[in-house]
Amino acid sequence: MGVEKGTRDSDIEHEEDLDEEPGEVIESAPPLKVGEERELGNSGIKKKLLKRGLGWETPEFNDEVTVHYVGTLLDGTKFDSTRDRDSSVIMKLGQGEVVAGLDHGIITMKKGERALFTLPPELGFGVTGRDAVPTNSFVRYEVELVSWIKVVDVSKDGGIIKKIVEKGDKHDRPGDLDEVLVKYQVALADGTIVAKTLEEGIEFYVKDGHLCPALPKATMTMKRGEKVKLVVQPQYAFGQEGKDASDAICPVPPNSTLYIDLELTSFKPVIDVTGDAKVFKKILKEGEGSLVANEGATVTISYTARLEDGTVFERKGIDDGQPLQFITDEEQVIAGLDRAVATMKKGEYAILTVKPEYGFGNVETKRDLAIVPPSSILVYEVEMSDFIKEKTPWEMNNQEKIKAAERKKEEGNLLFKSGKYLRAGKKYDKAASYVGEEEVFGDDEQELVTAMRVTCWLNKAACSLKLNDFQGAIKLCSKVLDIEFYNIKALYRRAQALIQTTDLVSADMDIKKALEVDPQNREVKLIQKTLKQLQAESNKRDAKLYSNMFADMTKQTSAITKKLKVERADDDMKNVEAVAMEMENVADSSYPPDNAKAVDSC
């Protein structure tokens, strides 16, 4: 059991006048007050708080704690004391290195706390006892929790054990895509150092790995500024083969356990903007606050745009140049830049990597400073100078909402006419949100906003049909029909979508309803004609299917009949043979035994 120089009671400032600390969680019980004693759940362990601790965190099983303790019997007889040895003790919780009950008590303590625990025999020394402790004795431990080191089983199989030496200063941890800056020193069991970073550390992308499998796995569990000690088993180090010497590492023998001192200095978050690994944003400097530009914002950015080989093809807002101002989601810049900028905060500085699908595609494009070859990957260094977000509905009065809805609807109409159905659909959605059903309008405005809502739903349904989103079209048309039961456009467009989903019966019902309202409607009559053709084809297919089924059944019946006839003939033949044999047996039994002899004598 390891020991270190302890901390005396007098070294810790008295906390009795502080606000009451949160206390250990014992079901729903309130925190203990100094001098108060309580049983810990139903464990049989009693805890009396002698001095409050600091903060709110408590250790867990497997953590390494540094404690002082004094063990006594109920009559005050002392049998063990770190105070007398003037050395605190390091112990791993959950191992029962002193007694099991003590571990259960310590996990309720905070740093600097002092408490008195009374342990029943089964959680103390039991029936065996120990020197100076009789069998089946209750014992008391006065414990001071000096500090502890968090211990984490990173790999969940004991292959990578992490001991937190120094906590990080933030809550976020790096992800698989992020670029991390780390410092480390790697040693073997005998203390031989086999690898060490320079003072400035080393950068790598987590997904690309570094040194050995354990390093990126452990790094993903760490916070900025966190320092840890890793114990890495061979399967997460260099395995049975070991590692030959190289520029980065000295030779590592086969099946070696590694001991790594690791510090996560910093990391740069990398975000998959489009979700398909074709536009990445690496944040070099965090922006202000929590608001991002998002769609429809007027943004002002400065940037340098390069090809992968470093060729600069465009600059905006650099070296006294004018920054670029544009509205996001309006196709005023390439899609990759548009989508990424919409995720940025004011003051954020980031590097964007844009694949051709979100850049200039497979065509050659002339820009300000250079020509961009076909299928080029683009790299933008972008700083968000400022942005002005569109007003949200709750920031507008009713007249502003109605005007904004009308404006977005008209923008959607222009996009629809240009064949840009996806963007048009977004505009109709936006327009409908300004006059949504949850918004409160006056009686004189209600008819107007309901009509606007219906128009937006119908137009979005038309976009959905163009984009082959038939279920989306059905849903939107159904919303309209909940308000206007005989809306011809809604019935017509829903029928179109239903036909595409092969629900011909429902489509026929919608068409008949539409013709009840307008028997001469040309579009509805045309789709009815199409529906009848599809129904006729469907009937033919059904007839053919049933015909084949009946033919198969007839063949099967004929085969069964033939089989029955054959089986019946076989049965008749067997019966005849049986009768003949029986007759022969009868005939044989009618001959007298002596007659046989007479024949033999002739």
UniProtKB/TrEMBL annotation:
<keyword id="KW-0697">Rotamase</keyword>
<feature type="domain" description="PPIase FKBP-type">
    <location>
        <begin position="177"/>
        <end position="268"/>
    </location>
</feature>
<feature type="domain" description="PPIase FKBP-type">
    <location>
        <begin position="62"/>
        <end position="149"/>
    </location>
</feature>
<feature type="domain" description="PPIase FKBP-type">
    <location>
        <begin position="296"/>
        <end position="388"/>
    </location>
</feature>
<feature type="compositionally biased region" description="Acidic residues">
    <location>
        <begin position="12"/>
        <end position="24"/>
    </location>
</feature>
<keyword id="KW-0677">Repeat</keyword>
<feature type="compositionally biased region" description="Basic and acidic residues">
    <location>
        <begin position="1"/>
        <end position="11"/>
    </location>
</feature>
<dbReference type="InterPro" id="IPR001179">
    <property type="entry name" value="PPIase_FKBP_dom"/>
</dbReference>
<dbReference type="GO" id="GO:0003755">
    <property type="term" value="F:peptidyl-prolyl cis-trans isomerase activity"/>
</dbReference>
<dbReference type="Pfam" id="PF00254">
    <property type="entry name" value="FKBP_C"/>
</dbReference>
<comment type="similarity">
    <text>Belongs to the FKBP-type PPIase family.</text>
</comment>
<dbReference type="InterPro" id="IPR046357">
    <property type="entry name" value="PPIase_dom_sf"/>
</dbReference>
<dbReference type="InterPro" id="IPR011990">
    <property type="entry name" value="TPR-like_helical_dom_sf"/>
</dbReference>
<feature type="region of interest" description="Disordered">
    <location>
        <begin position="1"/>
        <end position="38"/>
    </location>
</feature>
<dbReference type="InterPro" id="IPR019734">
    <property type="entry name" value="TPR_rpt"/>
</dbReference>
<keyword id="KW-0802">TPR repeat</keyword>
<protein>
    <recommendedName>
        <fullName>peptidylprolyl isomerase</fullName>
        <ecNumber>5.2.1.8</ecNumber>
    </recommendedName>
</protein>
<keyword id="KW-0413">Isomerase</keyword>
<dbReference type="InterPro" id="IPR050754">
    <property type="entry name" value="FKBP4/5/8-like"/>
</dbReference>
